[in-house]
Amino acid sequence: MNPSVLLYVQHLLGIGHLERALRLARALSREGMRVTLVCGGKGLASREKIAAERVVQLPPIKAGDSSFRTLIDGRGERVGEALCAERRTALLAAYRQARPEALILESFPFGRRAFRFELDPLIAAARAQNPRPLLFSSIRDILVAPQSEEKSREITARVREEFDAVLVHADPSLVTLERSFPAAREIADRLYYTGYIGREELPPNSPLGAGEVVVSAGGGAVGGPLLRAALEARRKGCLSGVPWRLFAGANLPLEEYAALQPGLQKGVVLERHREDFADRLFACRVSVSQAGYNTMLDILAARARAVVVPFASGREIEQTLRAEIFASLGLVEVVAEKDLTPERLGAAIARAALRPQMDLAIATDGALKSAEIVARMLALRSRQFRSAASEAIMPQ
């Protein structure tokens, strides 16, 4: 029977973690594994795209705001012990039903530490199983650095004690984990660089959205300032002779979305989301966005001229570091979130429009490589078990 894999993902504000997990789930399935996807964030909207044998939606939890200090439930109320207990029970039940040979935790223990109430019991259940499943951590290229060396030591100790491998979804020729997590050197033997988890396939050549300025706010939860600055930049004359298309994202609050609609100029289209969003970047005049993992990969795949305004609230450094790396290679214009004004954004868009198309060759087949690593480690362990079993029954 094909091996069973349980993949856990918890997205709190944006949709990047979820999108990366979905791409990984599809690759694992194509590699012949039976995938159980456990989602702890807001409900999945398009399950037909999920290549998993089983999807388990836990009672959703999300961040109360961009500071991530408060977690709230689907009704907007602060998370309490009753909800934690409900989720813990559901997660352990999903684990027992899947009986996985491999357990993949997105972000943990490097992130999502607020969810130890359910992940610690899950890991304990896995370690108590005989034979126990292989345990993988799945992380992006750049992490939010721990607040203290003590926390760094705790993370590395857990990796060494409990995890078989850390799948780092990055190309080390561009950035290594030590850039944002210096203690990575202490777990170097556990790190497997997979390449970035990019799109599975590129669209055929198409004039779709040709010449547009495409402004996107990712999931939209914190995209309001970028959208407002972009609209005002066009009103002030920035590339006003070409069409603009703004994608607000599904999570932009309804009142903010409604406030953007009155007075849209001719040639400006405002939409929540389109399935062909990434395809439109291939022929766009300029892409304007934040600097999230998936968005930057979409820009790179399209070789689009781009302006990025990295999300930088609180302790968030991920998008700023990623934007700085791309800017250092001359690939994008960057406007810091604290410096965002219509004038600065407009000037950056005008500069980007004059750039040649970006061109950077990095590994973007990270989903496939991750699935191959998991399959290879499972096969190796299976051979070791068979060998040990054979030795046990041989006459002494």
Protein architecture, described:
By secondary structure, this protein is of the alpha/beta class. It folds into two domains: 4-198 and 364-393, 3-Layer(aba) Sandwich (Rossmann fold), CATH 3.40.50.2000; 213-353, Glycogen Phosphorylase B (Rossmann fold). 36% of the residues lie in helices and 15% in strands. The protein is built from eleven helices and 15 strands. It has a seven-stranded parallel β-sheet with strand order 3-2-1-6-7-8-9, with helices on both faces. Strand 14 (306-308), helix 9 (318-328) and strand 15 (333-334) form a beta-alpha-beta unit. Helix 2 runs parallel beside helix 3 and helix 5 (224-235) crosses helix 10 (342-353). The longest helix has 28 residues, at 366-393. The protein is globular and about 70 Å long. The mean pLDDT is 90.
Give the termini distance in whole angstroms: 32 Å
Q: Please mark out the parts with pLDDT under 50 across 5 or more consecutive residues, or reply none.
A: none
Structural class given helices, strands, pairing?
alpha/beta
CATH topology of the largest domain: Rossmann fold
Strand content of the residues, in percent? 15-25%
CATH superfamily of the largest domain: Glycogen Phosphorylase B
Biggest sheet character: 7 strands, parallel
**Overall number of strands:** 15
Number of domains: 2
Shape: globular
CATH architecture of the largest domain: 3-Layer(aba) Sandwich
Q: Let me know the average pLDDT.
A: 90
Helix content: 25-40%
**SSE arrangement, N to C:** EHEEEEHEHEHEEEHEHEHEHEHEHH
How many whole angstroms does the radius of gyration measure?
A: 22 Å
CATH class of the largest domain: Alpha Beta
Q: Compute the number of helices.
A: 11
Q: Which strand order do you get reading across the main beta sheet?
A: 3-2-1-6-7-8-9
